[in-house]
Amino acid sequence: MKKILRHIKTGPVSEYVKEQLLKDFLTFIRPAMPSVLILEFIYLYLVMTETDGRNAGLWFSAMFGSISIAMIFGLFINKISIKRKYKEIILLILLIFTFGSFGLSLPYYYPLLPFGYVNLLVILIAGIIGGLSSIASPQRTIYLVSAFAISLPETIYFAMQEDFTRQLLAVLIPFYIATMFIFVMLDHVRRVRFIETNRNLDIAHRELAENHDRLKQMKKKQDGDYFLTSLLIEPLGRNNYRGDACELNFLIRDHKRFRFNKWRKGIGGDLNIAENIQLGNKQYAFFLNADAMGKSIQGAGGALVLGAVMQSILMRIQARKPQIFPEHFLQESIDELQRVFNQFQGSMLISLIMGLIDEETGILYYINAEHPFLVLLRDKKSEFLENSIGMHKIGVITEFNTVPIFVRSLSRNDIIVAGSDGRDDLITDSDKREIQNDEARFLEIIEKYGDRSMRKIYSALRQYGRLSDDLSLIKVKYKNDPEPLRENLLQLKKEFAQAKKNHDFAALADKAARIADISVADASYLRKAAAAHWQSGNTELALSFAYRYYRRFPFEGKAISLLATMYARLRQEQLRDRFVSLGLKIAPEHRDWHKIGLPVE
Predict the structure, then answer these.
(1) Taking the CB of residue 531, how many other CB atoms lie within 10 A of it?
(2) DSSP string spanning 305-343?
(3) Domain boundaries, the chain
(4) CATH code for the domain defined by 237-482
(5) What are the pLDDT digits (tens) for 413-463?
(6) pLDDT in tens, 292-330
(7) What is the DSSP string of 228-246?
């Protein structure tokens, strides 16, 4: 019994569940009412044929009237705007009248009917009660009241009879009703749980749909942000180089692809820039290949800042055409970028290669800020142009961030290729999704396809795997022939020797500068040019050439010593002490730095 009670307990039922139970009951009772009406007609027929219709008008008027009203009410109940509990009360009253008038008439007609007809009516009433139990489980009270309304009068009647069979029926009828009521309760609990489960599922489905719609809106907004950012970056990263000395080609493949309305675009942190710039009376091809740290929008933010700052630098240079050397331009550009990105306290870092190519001499000046090595393709052989990283990433805050400027000589039809780390980090097509980082592989690809289109280089990379990061490439082909200039090198060195013999310091400085600009191997002539300008009294140019030499060889004692000595003689103690301290750290064995001057305490 305890198990049964445990199963028929439902706990508090929400108003929503009650509304659904009423709807279910109405759904079941509507087709059942005509069946009850048919049973009443059978009952009327028996009464009219066996009892001469004694008082039939009264009883059957009550029965047919109440069931007719109940049927009409059941059909239009949903259109009646009253509270649920009032609907239940009206239904209960109508069913009490219907089944009550039926039940009350039975003790009146049973004595008048043959024994067989009485048994038939008992069976019909049992069927009505059983039928009610199958359709009235949504409304337990209606079932219980209706069952007793139709059966209680006959139960009392049978209990008062002397016939044992009739008395047994008086006992069995309540037991039958109670048994059916247990089934009604069990079905009621099942229905309540079913409705609650369905409602919870509907709520969950609705929440899921709302979340999905919300995610779609967020995705659309995010894609809108991506689209706007990509539009801002586009004009900052363009190939604006127009010249005959070099041929520059770009390729960028953003790892993050998105669709916004009818546009399909990509967004990432890689950036390529190429421009013509003039420094003094010399023309240069400027190029930059950069990779901002971070995925999608974070990387794009870094690329946006970098592009804006770099375009500002280039516009100033193009407007002023300053009388500065390529080493100075690269150093000042890096210093300005470093000042900007230091404001982000290390949260936005940039790796890059920034370079200048002297269109006349083919001399390449470039800086590598923790970027993949620059590749040279010459005579169908590829090689890395450097074997160590020049400096930390832009945005790394350090006490001493030396910026060595690499200088190389290019020959006619030489090709250099700069690229982000997406060129090396490829995901293999195996099930393990391993990232293969193989720098030598890129050398092989450039050796095979470097003189072909950028699309062909990209296709060759993709044969080794899928991109795991943004990919950007810049390919520069030098088309001029600098050999006639380099053939004059021996003559220039003879003229330099003659000027030195004649103590013609102006000519000496000029010849030394021209030699250094033509021949990378003769970088020592930068020191000689600095010394000649110093001797001629032009301290500004002397310092410029000393800095050119230092920026090429920042870890060489001679470069540091030259600047420290010049500042000491100019009595600029703060700058002197800076380079003396640097010499003590980097090249303590080079010389007795104390003779230049110890750092000021």
Answers:
(1) 19
(2) HHHHHHHHHHHHHHHH--S--HHHHHHHHHHHHHHHHHT
(3) 2-204, 237-482, 485-595
(4) 3.60.40.10
(5) 999 999 998 888 888 765 555 566 677 889 999 999 999 999 999 999 888
(6) 988 778 888 899 999 999 999 999 998 888 889 999 999
(7) HHHHHHGGGS-B----SSE
